[in-house]
Design a protein that fits this description.
Layout (H helix, E strand, L loop, with lengths): L1 H7 L2 H15 L12 H10 L5 H14 L3 H5 L3 H8 L5 H18 L8 H4 L7 H10 L10 H9 L8 H11 L7 H12 L23
Helix pairs in contact: 2-12, 3-9, 6-7, 10-12
The structure holds iron/sulfur cluster (SF4).
Length: 217
Amino acid sequence: MHEARRRVGRRRARIGPIVERLVAEHPDATIALRFHSDLELLVSVMLSAQTTDVNVNKVTPLLFAKYRGPEDYLAVPAEELERDIFQTGFYRQKARAIRGTMRLLIDEFGGEVPRRLEELVRLPGVARKTANVVAAERGEAQGIVVDTHVRRLSQRLGLTRREDPVRIELDLQRLVPRRDWGRLPHLLIWHGRRVCVARRPRCESCALSDLCPSSRV
Ligand code: SF4
């Protein structure tokens, strides 16, 4: 690995070309969730835990037509909301988190979704990753989303040696220009799905192979 790291050079010099090439490879890399407001964005991201964005998109058109403001989620019995989000899995926990979040939005934030990361993570069921996704999709990234793809690719590309998502995020924050904090995770996620897959990375057709210490080419 030492030899491989020497071959590709310092990560600080590689990060610019890595981002550029990923943008060229995956110009369509954006969030797959569909939403039309900050509240819909927040609910969509909360529902996307442990399921696919496609699955969430099947549920949300009817959901958002029925629940238009935070108070609407509290105006029905919990069981009704559970039924409405059942298809996304873990529906009891999700319904509880959504209702708790709506309560706090009404009580402390005037019914609006707060903008600062420290405020977002106070909402029930909103962990750092969810808060980072919401902030980034509003064009106000205050951190870097680290999911399973971002973690795997950051490690393979030699951008971090950490295992813990929070420490990986800190490494990436030090390395990646702030203007790229929002789009980098999308690029890594799409590259991770299409090329640098978990079991057998397709190094032979990877645009990053000369910049990657893990390349098998
Ligand atoms: S060269 Fe291989 S290991 Fe490196 S990013 Fe590309 S597919 Fe992944």
